[in-house]
Each structure stands twice: as structure tokens, then as C-alpha cells.
Specification:
This protein has one helix and twelve strands. It is mainly β. The longest helix has 4 residues, at 56-59.
């Protein structure tokens, strides 16, 4: 494991991982983080809380720095994963993945958040190369999942008792 050592730049961030077998390198993972220069215009908050230690703002340890891209080298093939867009919670919403053999795919994820109930990050929709892989409909009153779809077809429907426990589960056939 290689962690960043440069204060106020990459201190503590996982930069790379090298996997060996019998002394031979078989895999290398490298991470690139959201650039400091773009944090002021990022769709998410620049800082995750406050650090009141003397000089902490200069260290930038509490800044949101999500991984923007990852490159994996394994079996003479290079795999890349690049985040095209983040949301207000620094979650990945648009990602492109590819490899040196020429294959690639683009995916988008939509999240369901109910801030009034402190429920964040439930996956509402996943699309890969323009094909909807999954979609979930939520009850806006209690943020519980009501219906789950796979490739556009109803896969599961859930009802709940008044206390929020599951009352019944039905598949697409009822």
C-alpha cells in the first residue's frame, strides 16, 4: 500500500496498491483524487465538517476528496474507471469504465434521499450503457422501498405494517 505523504496535498490518501505473488507484481491499482483546484466549484461541499486544531485548515485533512479515477494493471491489461460526475453528497452519479482491449461502458446511478427522515443514499435507479438495470420506487412518507424493478420489469413489491416492519412481499407474479 502506498499512501500520500505530502502535507496539505495528498497526506493519508491511498495512492496505489501493489499485489505480488512470489515476488512478482501481478496487479497494481492507482487512485487519482478530485483535484484541489476544482474543489471550490465542485457540486459537493469542499469540507466535511470542521477541524478546530491549530493549523488544521492548512492541512486539508477534512476536505472532501473522492476518488475521481482508478487505473488497474493486471494480466497485461489496463482497466480504467473514471467518475464523470458527482452529486451534492460526493457520490458517484456518472462513471465510465474501460480497458486496453477496447471494451467500455458508461453507467449512471440515481439516489433516493429523504432528508427530513435522515435517509440518504438508497439506490433508486441504475443504468448501464443506456439500459436500465434496476429501479426502486420509495414511499415518500417513510422512505421505505415499495417496488423494485429489474430491466424494466417488476421484480418485487413490498407492503409494510404501521410500525414499518414488512407485512408482505410479492414477486412479479403476485
Amino acid at each position: 500500500y502506498e499512501f500520500g505523504k505530502e502535507v496539505a496535498y495528498n497526506d493519508g490518501l491511498l495512492l496505489s496498491t501493489t499485489t505480488r505473488s512470489g515476488g512478482t507484481v501481478v496487479r497494481v491499482d492507482r487512485n487519482n483524487y478530485y483535484p484541489d483546484a476544482q474543489l471550490d466549484s465542485a457540486p459537493f461541499p469542499k469540507e466535511a465538517g470542521k477541524d478546530f486544531k491549530y493549523g488544521a485548515n492548512d492541512l486539508k485533512a477534512h476536505y472532501n476528496r473522492p476518488v475521481q479515477s482508478t487505473v488497474v494493471e493486471q494480466d497485461s491489461v489496463q482497466f480504467t474507471r473514471t467518475v464523470q460526475a458527482f452529486d451534492a453528497f460526493a457520490r458517484e452519479v456518472s462513471v465510465v469504465e474501460g480497458n486496453s482491449a477496447g471494451q467500455s461502458r458508461a453507467s449512471t446511478t440515481t439516489y433516493y434521499d429523504n432528508l427530513a427522515l435522515w435517509v440518504n443514499g438508497q439506490s433508486a435507479r441504475s443504468v448501464v450503457n443506456g439500459v436500465e438495470q434496476s429501479r426502486t420506487e420509495f414511499d415518500t412518507t417513510n422512505a421505505l422501498p415499495l417496488r423494485a424493478y429489474a430491466f424494466g420489469r417488476l421484480a418485487q413489491q413490498v407492503t409494510y405494517a404501521a410500525d414499518g416492519t414488512v407485512a408482505s412481499v410479492a414477486d412479479a407474479r403476485g
